[in-house]
Specification:
The complex is a heterodimer of chains A (476) and B (420). Chain A is an alpha+beta fold and 476 residues long. Chain A is built from 16 helices and 20 strands. Chain A has a seven-stranded antiparallel beta sheet, sandwiched between helices. Chain A has a five-stranded antiparallel beta sheet with strand order 5-6-10-8-9. In chain A, strands 1-2-4-3 form a four-stranded mixed beta sheet. Chain B has three domains: 122 residues, Orthogonal Bundle (Fumarate Reductase Iron-sulfur Protein, Chain B, domain 2), CATH 1.10.1060; 118 residues; 112 residues, Rossmann fold. In chain B, helix 10 packs across helix 22. The longest helix of chain B has 18 residues. The radius of gyration of chain B is 22 Å and the shape is globular. The chains are: A alpha+beta (476), B alpha/beta (420). Chains A and B meet through helix 2, helix 4, helix 9 and helix 13 of A and helix 3 and helix 4 of B. Bound molecules: flavin-adenine dinucleotide (FAD) and iron/sulfur cluster (SF4) (2 copies). One iron/sulfur cluster binds next to helix 2 and helix 3 of chain B.
């Protein structure tokens, strides 16, 4: 251990290689409910060459590496398993170059998503993926999890907005994936890296696509007497060929918690609200807003309100985007699911979810990217109460299976991490998984990059149980 | 199939993870934190970008989420209070920018104040020299002497530059006189010694609106905010009780032109937990907040000051009192242009005594703020807190109190109507 620390410190500096118990204990978590346990040294590199040096040193000492952004992941992707070297990317947070002519910007991966859009605002552009955590999550984390957000309904998720990447492979070599010019490469390795959750290496520079700010935006808030009415409205909007920028649904319980925090005027008595946004030229946006309002009313909307000002719009979105965080007003812990079902099945699946929660005697709340059929059921619990957590897991498993049964997938946007590894075999055949594993090994033959994540045991590089068998303190 | 190793196994039985107690490392300090308050944090991380120390370090142990997690480990899991844990707590500016950012409503400020009080009781933080340094604050004569000495020392170059004190600390001034009994103007300790011209300006502005002002001078020597931040809540309670005794013969409003003091005085209700203290706190107003309700009584000026003014909200006005809207209302008629800073009210790094105790972090935070200020290219920055003004002035930023701008606008010669 001492030799590893000494090598890392001479490559970086004393204060940017941390090994104290407090630091390691904090780094052992992200925003998920999973407890990974044991982190090795925590490094804060400031440039690509330092990342390379860390990779090489870790390899020499037989240690794995785990990249970490802001630690807002909900699937445990940044959790260190087996005392790896953790590479915290937060100090690599420069916006390097903005090229408005080609609508591309090179940024370091530690740049906060919203900081990038804020920086671009005076130029009339933004970075389109807008996870609800955008005020804090990093571009590197977005790339690794292929994150989405409310406005990805119209613009597509992160993958569609990453043009090229500089990466450091687990061997310490630097490579560039993707190209700024016309696509002349055979294999789209950039596409393989986006969503790889740190298992193929570390992104050290990202070329992101810039999206022009729309000339006109209309934001609607529709209230409904049932979640089913809201879900049906969403299906009808899409079926009528309207492509809103965003369509988000929240049920009554979560709406009350959110309103308590933001005071945006969300109705407290509606069983569900639909937040819909349309963009475009002035006239077009007005027509779309009118059509959505009509479809809502046809499905029984009890109230339709349009945001009158930018402030009102911002407040409504602030409510939606802080929804998960507002949970503690009701219970101190939550387990958040992330699954995608065909839009046509939305209403039925939601009903099933409420039934499952009732069966397991749990509170469930639903807040979701309705336009994509991306569901986020939140199961509420109090970890201090014996047995609640077990019920949460049983209910979670039932919910996932119910979604898979109607043709859904495992993760909409939060990734697999350690959370859904166990379900991979239910979705993919052994053959599929074998190919995924071979791709991973092409990047990382020695199995050093974020081992124990994504691919299930038996297919992944490292055996999770073996990783976890290292007790706390062994390396200290 | 689901990995069964989940976190949040909180409570006394859970195993401490923040290392082991060893020589010189006290184990099992009871932080006496409210268990439900502590439990409210869901570790979502939405507060991180609103924390100045996280912003400049990117270090989880210098973030609100990290600090809360460490409080939990110490209190619930019996983790030892290592130097690194203390470092995490002591590096907190107590700006409370994390509070309005938190959708779960975690009362971070009260948690940190309580944690510091418990640690100070164990003599783990706030060493003797710091405790002694707070003493003169409640004794105006000593403070005035000390301040004069400091001002002189600063002028003669005896004060280290890294403290970033502005060059023109006043050496000696006359106390303010009462002009009536409609409102109190709280004059306090440090600010009265160093920035009495701000009180004087505020007093003239309130008088211009037609109200008589009683400066509190010796009646209320100190609000106790700095002591509470340092974990010396006992001293703050004593000062609060003293102030409540001397200012409670009637129920006139108490106006405060220092955001830090105002926040502390509005918190007496919570600090003392009595109905009397709550009633006292309800009489406390930030001077801009109060004046915003009476702005129509101010004389109108024909020519506002020809200035582009950037408003830097003091954290204790914006995040704690949440009364920063008033600054805009009162300033708008008197200056050409008001511009907002694009950083969601991030702290400037002053933090009461913080800039002296943590010069490096305070400097880094200030550098960031100066960058944000430069973006909007103001003629001058308006800040309603003396500590912030001095801290920013230390970096060469022209900073004034909003009351000084209004005072100046009201006192400049008005163009005479033609033919008069
Ligand atoms: C309140 C809340 C709301 C959320 N809302 C959404 C949402 O709407 N949509 C959504 O998609 N997600 C959402 N998330 C999940 C999360 O914010 C996203 O997955 C985000 O992209 C993670 O970014 P991060 O910087 O926090 O990464 P981390 O959590 O630190 O890491 C995530 C993964 O990325 C890897 N990684 C980090 N940096 C790099 C790098 N430079 N190179 C390679 N790998 C790297 C890590 O190893 C890990 O596997 C939400 C989370 C919270 C707490
Ligand atoms: S303090 Fe609030 S915002 Fe910060 S991590 Fe905890 S719950 Fe989230
Ligand atoms: S009070 Fe300020 S410095 Fe302390 S954790 Fe909160 S935001 Fe950070």
């Amino acid at each position: 251990m001492d030799a590893l620390l000494a090598d890392l410190r001479s490559a970086l500096s004393d204060d940017r290689v941390r090994y104290d118990a407090a630091q390691r204990s904090l780094i052992a978590h992200d925003a998920s409910v999973f407890d990974g346990g044991v982190s090795g040294p925590v490094c804060y590199p400031v440039d690509t060459s330092e990342v390379q040096a860390i990779m090489r040193i870790a390899l020499t000492h037989g240690r794995a590496v785990v990249p970490r952004g802001a630690g807002t992941g909900l699937a445990g992707g940044a959790i260190p398993l087996g005392a790896p070297v953790v590479i915290a990317m937060t100090k690599m947070n420069a916006i390097l170059d903005v090229d408005l002519d080609n609508r591309v910007a090179w940024v370091e991966p530690g740049v906060i998503n919203l900081d990038l859009s804020r920086h671009l605002r005076p130029m009339g552009f933004h970075f389109a993926p807008d996870p609800s955590s955008q005020q804090v999550c990093t571009i590197g984390g977005n790339v690794a999890n292929n994150s989405g957000g409310p406005h990805c309904l119209a613009y597509g998720v992160t993958d569609a907005h990453v043009v090229s990447l500089e990466i450091v492979l687990p061997s310490g070599e630097v490579g560039t994936l993707g190209t700024l010019g016309p696509d002349d490469h055979g294999l789209d390795l950039r596409g393989a890296f986006v969503g790889s959750e740190g298992t193929l290496g570390i992104a050290t520079k990202v070329a992101v696509r810039l999206t022009k700010n729309p000339p006109a935006v209309r934001t609607l808030l529709l209230s409904f007497a049932s979640v089913r009415d809201a879900a049906n409205t969403v299906s009808d909007v899409i079926a009528n060929g309207i492509v809103p920028a965003a369509m988000e649904v929240m049920d009554q319980k979560i709406t009350i918690a959110v309103e308590n925090f933001v005071g945006a005027g969300y109705p407290l008595d509606a069983a569900a609200v639909l937040l819909a946004e349309v963009e475009g030229l002035e006239g077009g946006a007005d027509i779309d807003a009118e059509r959505i309002s009509d479809l809502g009313r046809a499905n029984g909307a009890t109230n339709v309100r349009q945001a009158e000002s930018d402030e009102e719009r911002a407040l409504l979105w602030k409510g939606r985007k802080t929804a998960f965080g507002a949970i503690a007003q009701i219970k101190p812990d939550y387990y958040l699911h992330d699954t995608v079902v065909p839009r046509s099945a939305l209403a039925d699946v939601l009903e099933t979810i409420y039934d499952i929660a009732k069966r397991h005697d749990l509170i469930v709340m639903n807040v979701f990217h309705a336009g994509d059929g991306n569901l986020h059921p939140l199961l509420l619990f109090d970890a201090r109460i014996e047995g609640e957590l077990e019920r949460v897991h049983a209910a979670g498993a039932d919910i996932l299976r119910a979604c898979l049964a109607v043709g859904g997938v495992l993760s909409g946007e939060h990734g697999i991490g350690v959370e859904k590894q166990g379900y991979m075999e239910e979705l993919f055949s052994a053959d599929d998984l074998d190919h995924q594993n071979r791709l991973r090994k092409a990047f990382d033959p020695a199995c050093r990059a974020n081992p124990g994540k994504v691919l299930p045991m038996g297919h992944s590089c490292a055996d999770i149980q073996a990783l976890r068998a290292v007790p706390t303190g062994v390396w200290g | 199939m689901i990995p069964g190793w989940l976190r949040r196994q909180r409570g006394p039985d859970a195993v401490g993870k923040t290392g082991v107690a060893g020589a010189g490392v006290p184990a099992g300090v009871d932080l006496k934190l409210d268990a439900d308050d502590l439990n409210m944090c869901v570790q979502c991380g939405l507060c991180l970008p609103h924390c100045p120390t996280f912003r400049v370090t990117g270090d989880e142990s210098m973030s609100p989420r990290g600090r809360i997690k460490l409080m939990r480990e110490v209190q619930d899991e019996g983790a030892p209070v290592t130097q690194d844990v203390l470092r995490s707590f002591e590096s907190c500016v107590q700006c409370r920018g994390c509070e309005p950012a938190c959708p779960s409503g975690v009362p971070y400020g009260h948690l940190m104040e309580q944690a510091r009080e418990s640690l100070a009781e164990e003599h783990l933080i706030t060493p003797r020299w710091q405790r002694l340094a707070f003493k003169p604050l409640s004794q105006p004569k000593v403070l005035q002497l000390g301040s004069s000495a400091l001002a002189l020392a600063n002028k003669t170059g005896l004060v280290p530059r890294r403290l970033g004190l502005p060059d023109d600390l006043p050496v000696r001034q006359e106390p303010l006189r009462a002009s009536g009994d409609d409102v109190y103007l709280f004059t306090g300790c440090v600010m009265d010694a160093w920035q009495r011209e701000v009180h004087a300006a505020g007093k003239r502005v309130i008088e211009a609106a037609g109200f008589g002002v009683t400066p509190t001078n010796e009646l209320a020597p100190c609000c106790g905010a700095l002591q509470a931040h340092a974990g010396l809540a006992g001293e703050t309670r004593a000062l609060a009780e003293r102030m409540m005794r001397t200012l409670s013969d009637d129920d006139r409003p108490i106006l405060v032109d220092s955001a830090g003091c105002g926040a502390a005085m509005k918190d007496y209700g919570h600090l003392l937990g009595t109905a009397g203290a709550a009633a006292f706190s309800a009489r406390v107003f930030d001077i801009q907040e109060w004046l915003a309700e009476h702005v129509d009584r101010l004389p109108s000026v024909a020519a506002p000051l020809d200035l582009r003014v950037a408003i830097q909200d003091p954290c204790h006005l914006r995040h704690v009192q949440r009364a920063h809207a008033g600054t805009r209302v009162v300033l708008r008629p008197f200056v050409r242009e008001i511009v907002e800073l694009d950083d969601d009210g991030l702290c400037c790094g002053a933090g009461g005594a913080y800039s002296v105790l943590e010069p490096e972090l305070a400097g880094a935070i200030r550098e960031r703020k100066v960058g944000v200020i430069d973006q909007v290219e103001p003629d001058v920055v308006a800040s309603a807190n003396p500590g912030c003004s001095m801290h920013l002035a230390g970096a060469g930023v022209a900073t004034v109190h909003p009351m000084q701008l209004i005072d100046q606008a009201l006192s400049q010669p008005q163009p005479q109507p033609v033919g008069a």
